[in-house]
Amino acid sequence: MSVAASRCAARLIQRSLRLPLSTSSPLSSAIPQSSYQSTRLSIASTTRLPSTRPFSSSSSLLHGHLDPPKPGEERKVTFVDKEGDEHTFEVADGDNLLDIAQANDLEMEGACGGSCACSTCHVIVSDPDMFDKMEEPDDDENDMLDLAFGLTETSRLGCQVKMSKELDGLVVKLPTMTRNLQASDFAKR
């Protein structure tokens, strides 16, 4: 281990143990000088340090979490799954159907993470009048819908449908199958 790497590891250990930082020698206040070198190397090589990556700062419990709607502002949405079972949820304005389904453990993949780059969150709006209340799908969504299995006149991508007052009471069906294109689907055989 290089000297620079040893110093960096020692600083990380100091921070994780909340030891005072010293400008003369790292860990000098916590470890006697005679055993400093061997202890520093053994701690640095055997201790798993906490991640310092900024994108890992949120709790894993918050992933896929939707904020509950404010009292009096609840919107109802019903999903009809592949078996015909209905699942009704109270949600907030702005929640999209993909997030709602995944937060409630319904079988909706969303392979692209809601970026409108696949058709695995395809839903079928049950009521044509409710479909007419929705904003028109943009070109990207229409392109992805062309790839969806079981496309209908009232098909939409769940990641693009955001709940609003106008959509209160929305009922959508999950198609019996989805089409998830992968690079291996195009491999030469």
From TrEMBL:
Residues 47-74 are annotated as: Disordered. Residues 75-178 form the 2Fe-2S ferredoxin-type domain. One of its GO terms (cellular component) is mitochondrion. Its cofactor is [2Fe-2S] cluster. It holds the Pfam family Fer2. GO terms for molecular function: 2 iron, 2 sulfur cluster binding; electron transfer activity; metal ion binding. It comes from the Eukaryota. Residues 64-74 have a biased composition (Basic and acidic residues). GO terms for biological process: P450-containing electron transport chain. Keywords: 2Fe-2S, Iron, Iron-sulfur, Metal-binding. Belongs to the adrenodoxin/putidaredoxin family. This is Ferredoxin. It comes from Aureobasidium melanogenum (Aureobasidium pullulans var. melanogenum).
